[in-house]
Amino acid sequence: MGSLPLNPDVLIVGAGPVGLFAALRLGQAGVSVTILKDSGLSQLPRACMFYPQPQFALAEAGIWDAIIKGGGFRSTGLDIPISMLNMAQPELTKVLMEKATETGRVQVLFNKELVSILKDGTDGSEVVTIAVKDVKTEQVEEHTASFLVGSDGNRSKTRSLLGISFPGHTWPEKLIATDVWLQNTEDSPVTTTILMEPVHYTIITPLTPPVKGEVTKWRLTFAVDPEELKTKTEAELLSEEYISHHYQRAWAGPRPFTYKIDRAATYTIHQRLASNLRRGRCLLAGDTAHVNNVIGGLGLSNCLMESVALSDALILVLKDGKPVDPILTMYSDERRQVFQFFIDSVSSWVS
């Protein structure tokens, strides 16, 4: 990676699927990218289902075979031209990172924390400059690029430093997402199940292809009663005793049954949209730009398409010589409209 430029075309803060997929497409177009991540790649149980449109985008990028080899599979179910893609987010992230760096134009620097944005491009300059701290050595250094992308999650340091507001609301429930190994006792024509309970609504979907009589890794996510949040600690919510109670409620089949929890995490559900996805030469994408109720699987599917829109916009400017202001403003306006007129309303409806 030492042959990559010290000052790349694009700096991306955050090494999740959104930043990595944008970097992959930029790298394929010959754009140099440096990704900064304050820790390692996340292993938390997050998104795991993807609609057809991002599947087309992944295939168009030439990485579909790697997606399937890396653990993705198409689920069975309704007779539609393309089924849902099931793949745990950590596995998707791993594939995207490998393929992005293989372009020879993308490097990922871990343990690098964004400290400040020194130049954001609003003064008419053609560069952005940021200060970055090495979390191990505490050394602070400056990085310069033509553009900066913040894709560092819903608690984004990038968005905060840019002074972009994040209005919206927080749902009263919390979700507990678990990846768990369970034995399949029956064949089901539909592999994803949603239990429409008034309080503990639950979604169950496989993370490995389910076969009757064999053990499969499943994502089992359920809502926590807001009243319980007043009395239970985070540790109690993630205790095996509490989670097992909900497995007994939600998992079909004979009793007793055995299980092995691979990973679990709690999530607060937000419905928020950044007031702008652009300031000067700095852009926001993914959860940094908007967050929504995850039930229904719209979150990362929408965000992967945002990676496409973002990389297309930057390629138009960097490679095709298109003017910066109208292209970046169009990106911000159009991506906000997608959330305002579709993602927000549909994901709120399923809450």
Topology:
Layout: E1 10-13, H1 17-28, E2 33-37, E3 49-50, H2 52-60, H3 64-69, E4 73-74, E5 85-86, H4 89-102, E6 106-110, E7 112-119, E8 128-134, E9 140-145, E10 147-150, H5 157-162, E11 168-183, E12 193-195, E13 202-206, E14 215-224, H6 226-229, H7 234-237, H8 240-250, E15 259-273, E16 278-279, E17 282-284, E18 290-291, H9 298-318, H10 324-349
Parallel strand pairs: 1-2, 1-10, 2-6, 10-17
Antiparallel strand pairs: 3-5, 4-5, 7-8, 8-9, 11-14, 11-15, 12-13, 13-14, 15-18, 16-17
Helix pairs in contact: 1-4, 1-9, 9-10
Pfam family, one: FAD_binding_3
InterPro entries: FAD-bd, FAD/NAD-bd_sf, PheA/TfdB_FAD_monoxygenase
GO molecular function: FAD binding; monooxygenase activity
Description:
This protein starts with 9 loop residues before the first strand and ends with a helix. The radius of gyration is 21 Å and the shape is globular. The protein is built from ten helices and 18 strands. The model has no long low-confidence stretch (mean pLDDT 93). The chain has two domains: 10-46 and 88-166 and 274-349, FAD/NAD(P)-binding domain; 169-270, D-Amino Acid Oxidase, subunit A, domain 2 (D-Amino Acid Oxidase, Chain A, domain 2). 32% of the residues lie in helices and 29% in strands. A six-stranded mixed beta sheet has the order 6-2-1-10-17-16. A hairpin with an 8-residue loop joins strand 7 and strand 8. Helix 1 (17-28) runs parallel beside helix 9 and helix 9 packs antiparallel against helix 10. With 351 residues, it is of the alpha+beta class.
